[in-house]
Amino acid sequence: MMGVPEPVAGSPRVAGARAAVLGLGRSGVAAARLLSRAGAEVYASDSGTGDRARAAAGELAREGIDAEAGRHDVARIAAADFVVPSPGIPPTAPVLADPAVAARPVFAEIEVASWFARAPIAAITGTNGKTTTTELLGHVARSAGLSATVAGNVGFAFSAAVLEEPAVAWHVLEVSSFQLSRIARFRPRVAVVLNLTPDHLDVYPDMAAYARDKRRIAENQTAEDDLCLSGEDPGLAELYAGVGAARRHAFHRTRRVERGAWLDDGWIALAGEPVEGRVLPAERLRIPGAHNVQNALAAALAAALMGIGRESIAEGLASFPGVAHRLETVLEEKGVRWVNDSKATNVDSTLVALQSFDAPLVVILGGRHKGSPYAPLAPHLGRARAVLAIGEAAPLVARDLGGATRVDVVETLERAVERARGVAREGDVVLLSPACSSYDQFSDYAQRGERFRELVLGGARNGRGGGG
Q1: Helices (H) and strands (E) in the chain — how many of each?
Q2: pLDDT value, residue 463
Q3: Under a CB-based contact definition with an 8 Å cutoff, are residues 113 and 31 in contact?
Q4: Counting beta carbons within 10 angstroms of the beta carbon of residue 400, is it exposed (0 to 12), middle (13 to 18) or buried (19 or more)?
Q5: Sheet holding 361-366: strands in order across?
Q6: What sign for the dihedral angle of Cα 215, 26, 145, 290?
Q7: Residue 1: its pLDDT value, please?
Q8: Contact residues for 153 (Cβ-Cβ < 8 A; gap 6+)
Q9: How many other β-carbons are positioned within 10 Å of the β-carbon of residue 427?
């Protein structure tokens, strides 16, 4: 039986407080459970009426937590001392825009969890590469013998981590702009910013608003902390100028840095850090693509700042197998490689995926449109036999890319996989890299990726693989 969690010194009072948790996904359920066990009076709700929301509400109710699916009781939320929305609930959601709710303090789930975190935090953000870098850093830490949770936006909530594993040495977190928009005291000991390109423009009014939330990762850092910025994104240094007081470090694939990580004649190397020198030849990484070299540089730098030695960093980098739903090979059959890149939920992430392969491509694109045009993908589709467009964004994909390559609007993932079997030839790659969120047809990118896997493997078992 878990003990009652105690907030760390300086954190807000939780015992006896009234808390409203919005959204009953993984983060919402974990936050409700953490706050309840810490002595708060919790009301948790979800506007959804599906099986998942109702099952989550029932699970919390059996633990004595007041929870319901199908609606948000605005009066009860407005009576709370503070509100904790799940990361998937954007700032523009109607329940948050209600004046009575908007008047209450609103905290991200990562903020609430940080009140109970006794281990230092290494936090990774950016538009693309967050999940891979977070998982890679956690793998390096664990391979080096450090106890570490890997949590946040990767599917394991930070609240669950501090509740279930309170005595670890480090918390390694992926953090999103939505989460960062609602922090107050959240302070990473090591913060990493990978890149910044347009994203979530269906929610943010402009790129500047998105960038303002991203810069909050550093605002509470002190002179005892470290901030690692990509030197390949010239706007980052300006964006983070004057934010927090952390020591600054850089990572770069083509230029030596004074303090940080760089690519030294094909080697991942550290410069100006407590551990210096070459770490590992980049060709020994098991994860494909030049973008993953940048992710490895960032992870190597963060690991060094966490106190891990060069040999241990090298062993961890070399043994990392990759992340599910990110350029993940599902099947190779009849000369056709089927790749699950469901984690690519924006155009820039899909652009990286297209640049990772030299083979002819059959590309599955689409889902819920996030506001960015698809035209930037056109120059990289010269090797594409076809683009198969799915979901709500399918007509926009066809409009933006129809002049560059063959685009078939097939609407569903099931039809896309079936069509890909007929189009793909030996030596081709069938690439699911949607450039869109999944919320039109799936609960999240992971469910979309798992469905892709099921369809591909099911077709193989039935003798309907590509290469015909």
Answers
A1: 17, 19
A2: 57
A3: yes
A4: buried
A5: 328-333, 336-340, 429-432, 361-366, 384-390, 407-411
A6: negative
A7: 39
A8: 87, 130, 131, 134, 173, 174, 175, 176, 179
A9: 11
CB 138 within 8 A of CB 122: no
> Residue 21 is encoded by which pair of tokens?
């948790």
- For 234, other C-beta atoms within 10 Å of its C-beta total 9
DSSP structural state of residue 48: -
The tokens describing 425, both together, are: 């030839």
- CA-CA distances (angstroms) from residue 139 to 142, 237, 464? 5, 28, 37
The pLDDT-based confidence of 462 (bands split at 50, 70, 90) is low
One-letter amino acid at 201 equals L
Residues 6+ apart with CB under 8 A from 104: 20, 77, 78, 80, 81, 82, 83
Q: Spell out the SS3 assignment of 400-446.
A: HHCCCCCEEEEECHHHHHHHHHHHCCCCCEEEECCCCECCCCCCCHH
For the segment 57-114, what is each residue's pLDDT rounded down to a tens digit? 999 999 999 999 999 999 999 999 999 998 778 777 899 999 999 999 999 999 999 9
Domains and CATH numbers, the chain: 18-106 (3.40.50.720), 111-319 (3.40.1190.10), 328-460 (3.90.190.20)
Cβ atoms of residues 74 and 150 within 8 Å? no
